[in-house]
């Protein structure tokens, strides 16, 4: 027997022998309606091709079940990892993730804000571009819906979940000082606040350990192509007299990947044993860090907790907006974990 087709919720409700509001309740939460009515709807569904347009139904509500996720790029596996975890957290709690990338461009970040608002998302979890962000766009988003930032705090006074850069830099600098020569810090362009915080953490820890900090600034124009920047910076260092020391600490893992590739290309042996020419360490525990050769020593950001706390904080702000209360927490700072591998 051929299954029937229906053009609208009203048509299907009429054919099922239930009211339109009852059918809406069923698709929101089947447990809200009586068992006999639920079975009647389910029997009608089996005999039809009917699929409700849930997205359109949500847009008609005062508050939808859609949550926006905005990140600078999806070519960075760290963001892919965190966004995937955020999506799973939201799905478990009955929300629909709507993910957009700004492709590291301020005008596209502003456009993404307009898109999320037009989709009437209930809230948004955002990793801002940082120095490149248009403050007015983030303020517009903040004024319209609950927003939580992760990885990089915004200037717009928004709730934030991120890494404790002072703690993480202290841990890896202390480890490198214990296990060999004190590290030289390879800086990255200050695209986000993390860069400045990590340099400050490096300097403070070196001073506490009784060593003079040495920071090599990145000579290239600002860019999110950290692997290329790391490769070119290491090439410049080697071409201008060689390494000033045997231990290099990079501001993030992606920069370290490039530095390692350039060191290898020049014939240097990377690793922590005495026969090696240089030790190289990073920060973040990028998903590919364990697969470099040698595997990269780094500080692991707590990606699962960043995702879980971002969702928890956002839903708390949505709930507080609904009931008129004030959320208890506005900032969550998470410690990182030292991951000792073969590169340092």
Describe this protein with a few key phrases.
3 domains, alpha/beta, four-stranded parallel beta sheet, six-stranded parallel beta sheet, Rossmann fold, elongated, 344 residues
Report what the structure shows.
The structure is a single chain. The protein is α/β, with parallel strands linked by helices and 344 residues long. The protein has three domains: 9-52, no CATH class; 66-163 and 304-335, Rossmann fold, CATH 3.40.50; 165-300, Response regulator (Rossmann fold), CATH 3.40.50.2300. Helix content is 44%, strand content 13%. The chain is built from twelve helices and twelve strands. The protein has helices spanning 9-16, 20-28, 35-46, 54-59, 77-92, 106-118, 135-144, 165-179, 193-208, 226-239, 253-265, 303-323, and strands at residues 66-71, 96-101, 123-126, 147-150, 160-163, 184-186, 215-216, 247-250, 279-281, 298-300, 331-334, 337-339. A six-stranded parallel sheet has the order 2-1-3-4-5-11, sandwiched between helices. Helix 1 packs across helix 2, helix 6 runs parallel beside helix 7 and helix 8 crosses helix 9. The longest helix has 21 residues, at 303-323. The mean pLDDT is 89. Keywords: DNA-binding, Transcription, Transcription regulation. GO terms for molecular function: DNA-binding transcription factor activity; transcription cis-regulatory region binding. InterPro entries: HTH_LacI, Lambda_DNA-bd_dom_sf, Peripla_BP/Lac1_sug-bd_dom, Peripla_BP_I.
Give the helix/strand layout.
Elements: H1 9-16, H2 20-28, H3 35-46, H4 54-59, E1 66-71, H5 77-92, E2 96-101, H6 106-118, E3 123-126, H7 135-144, E4 147-150, E5 160-163, H8 165-179, E6 184-186, H9 193-208, E7 215-216, H10 226-239, E8 247-250, H11 253-265, E9 279-281, E10 298-300, H12 303-323, E11 331-334, E12 337-339
Parallel strand pairs: 1-2, 1-3, 3-4, 4-5, 5-11, 6-7, 6-8, 8-9
Antiparallel strand pairs: 10-12
Helix pairs in contact: 1-2, 5-12, 6-7, 8-9, 10-11
